[in-house]
Design brief:
Blueprint (H helix, E strand, L loop, with lengths): L8 E7 L8 E8 L4 H7 L9 H14 L2 E7 L1 H7 L5 H16 L3 E5 L5 H12 L7 E5 L7 H25 L10 H13 L12 H16 L2
Parallel strand pairs: 1-4, 4-5
Antiparallel strand pairs: 1-2, 2-3
Helix pairs in contact: 2-6, 4-5, 7-8
């Protein structure tokens, strides 16, 4: 990767790090520096502050503005498999690096997953190869609320995850958002355990929230004897 091949400004973020159901989606967008101001004009900001319909509208506008989009999706089954030998943070580093390597930006802004944001940026830069080429890497917490380019990535990541979740609803039933804070999601997983049904691959079985539901059902069964 020669320095002359590095171009533009990129932002990378994820959606779906915390849920017990569904994939984690990492998205990166690359834009011509001259068009950065356009992201502000269309109202790109942290996807968590936007309604689903607003995210959908903005995602179409973002795709028109940016030069390139890269998405990596990690299924629940793969997350479970990878976590047997590594951490979720390291999984994110790998996916962020894969996206950055494909985008080849001169400047990249990362929404850091690590408690130490500089360490996260250093790993992504080294693994992607862009650090050696002199690219500027900015890795911060809450970058999606600070930099429009990361906001754009967060919006596309969230829209893609929402799309996948909707497909899963069609196949498995309405389990809600998939997050541990969602009562509908809790009821769905609890119902599977109570019925003695094998958990489908969309559920992250390595998640503490899933293990706690299993343990509560097992305890209730013991108490009934």
């Amino acid at each position: 990767m020669s320095k002359s091949r590095l171009f533009g400004i990129a932002g990378v973020d994820e959606a779906g790090r915390g849920p017990m159901i569904g994939p984690m989606v990492v998205c990166g967008v690359l834009i011509d520096p001259d068009k950065i101001s356009e992201l502000n004009k269309i109202g790109a900001r942290d996807s968590k502050t936007l309604s689903p319909s607003r995210r959908q509208t903005l995602s179409q506008k973002i795709k028109v503005l940016v030069t390139k989009v890269e998405i990596r999706s990690v299924s629940a089954a793969d997350i479970d498999r990878f976590r047997k030998r590594t951490t979720l943070n390291e999984i994110e580093v790998t996916k962020f690096a894969s996206v950055v390597k494909a985008l080849k930006p001169k400047e990249v802004y990362l929404d850091a997953a690590d408690v130490n944001p500089k360490r996260f940026g250093k790993k992504v830069g080294e693994m992607s190869g862009i650090s050696a080429m002199g690219a500027k890497i900015v890795s911060e917490h809450k970058a999606d609320s600070k930099y429009p380019i990361v906001s754009a990535a967060s919006i596309l990541a969230k829209v893609e995850r929402d799309r996948v979740i909707e497909v899963m609803h069609q196949e498995y039933g309405d389990f809600g958002s998939g997050y541990p804070s969602d009562p509908k999601t809790i009821r769905f997983v609890r119902g599977l355990f109570e019925e003695g049904t094998a958990l489908p691959p969309i559920i992250r079985q390595s998640w503490d929230s899933v293990k706690k539901i299993r343990e509560s059902i097992e305890q209730a069964t013991l108490d009934s004897f």
